[in-house]
Amino acid sequence: MKNIILGFAFLSVLSINAQEVVKEIEKVTQAIEDTTRVNGWTKKGEIIFLFNQSSFSNWLAGGENNFSGNLGLNYDFNYKSEDWSWDNKIIASYGLLQTQNAEFEKKTDDRLELNSLAGKKAWGLWYYSFFVNFRTQFTQGYNYSNDINGKEIREEFTNFMSPGYLTFGPGLLWKKRDDFKFNLAPLTSKMTFVDDSYTSVPGYVDGTYFGVDANKNFRYELGFYASGYYKFNLFENVSAENILSLYSNYLEDPQNVDLDYQLNIVMTINKWLTTNFSFQTIYDDNAFRGFQVRQVFGLAVKYGF
Q1: CA torsion, ordered 7, 13, 17, 23, to nearest 10 deg
Q2: With CB atoms 3.0 to 4.6 Å apart as the test, which of 55, 129, 164, 268 could cross-link to 237 if both were Cys?
Q3: ∠ at Cα 183 (179, 187), nearest 5°?
Q4: Rounded Cα–Cα distance for residues 194 and 214 (Å)
């Protein structure tokens, strides 16, 4: 964690020192966007395969053969006219780790997220808006432990649409560009879906599984939602994408603000190779009373379209 904090501090210093360069790059980026729109639409995406492998033979210091791979998709398709703005993003990733002596393969990543944000021009850079966000995972998630003989065992804890989150509501959007905007939505509905087999076990206590009560498969919240998106270039071949969302539930414990922050740094080596660093932290006291942290770093093969 210390190394991560130092890394963020280093990147922050670089960002401050390069502000003037960033401003010039942003102007060029906007000019490119204006010339690549077709019938109001801009579309851009990439598929990334990130991998890591370690192998040992008679290595006295110790070590275990392992291989891990992550496959990811990041796709944007946005529409803009004089009075309307409609931004859409799909984020999907899945990864597995296999070690030589482990009983099971383990996931290194598993997420599916869809975002849609529509706006009607109000004044200046402000739009009347409506947004939809959907999040879930692809496959089962497990809790791992050892039995009395020391053998590794696992117990299923999550699955596709368990949990699944659907968040939507009207608001106000401030948008300077596709890569710099924030949205405020004071009447946002948040729905949490789960498989009721998890909430129907004997002795289940209301709210312990993602906030859902016993024998139920659904939780509804009404609250305030704020989100922001900022993507810029640290250097000519290094981009930093920041995605932040905050949510406060009016109906229960509004002081407990849910947070989801994602940082994606990509250093382009050539057309096909990149070095990727992804960091995500989530705070949602209905899921876990503490910060969930995900970090992925490695060399990736990229296909852009």
Answers
A1: 70
A2: 268
A3: 160
A4: 11
Contact 48, 274 (CB under 8 A): yes
Angle at 302 between CA 298 and CA 305, to 5 degrees: 150
DSSP 241: E
pLDDT digits (tens, 9 = 90+) for 242-265: 999 999 999 999 999 999 999 999
Name the packing angle between helices 2-17 and 19-36 (round to 10°). Answer: 80
Helix (H) or strand (E) holding 103: none
pLDDT attached to residue 1: 43
Token pair for 67: 């291989």
Instruction: Assign residue 31 a region (left: φ > 0; alpha: ψ between -120 and 50; beta: otherwise).
Output: alpha
The distance in angstroms from the start CA to the end CA of the chain is 35
Structure tokens given for 61: 């210091």
Q: What is the structure's pLDDT at 64?
A: 79
3-state secondary structure (DSSP) of residue 40: coil
Structure tokens that stand for 140 in this block: 């089962």
Look at the block and give the residue holding tokens 């050539």: 270
Q: Which of 132-136, 255-259, 295-299 has the lowest mean pLDDT?
A: 295-299
Distance from C-alpha of 274 to C-alpha of 239, rounded to nearest angstrom: 11
- 102: tokens are 């482990």
User: Which tokens is 242 given?
Assistant: 């920041």
Question: What residues pair up with 136 in beta bridges, in sequence order?
Answer: 112
Q: What per-residue confidence (pLDDT) applies to 112?
A: 97
- 162 pLDDT exceeds 90? yes
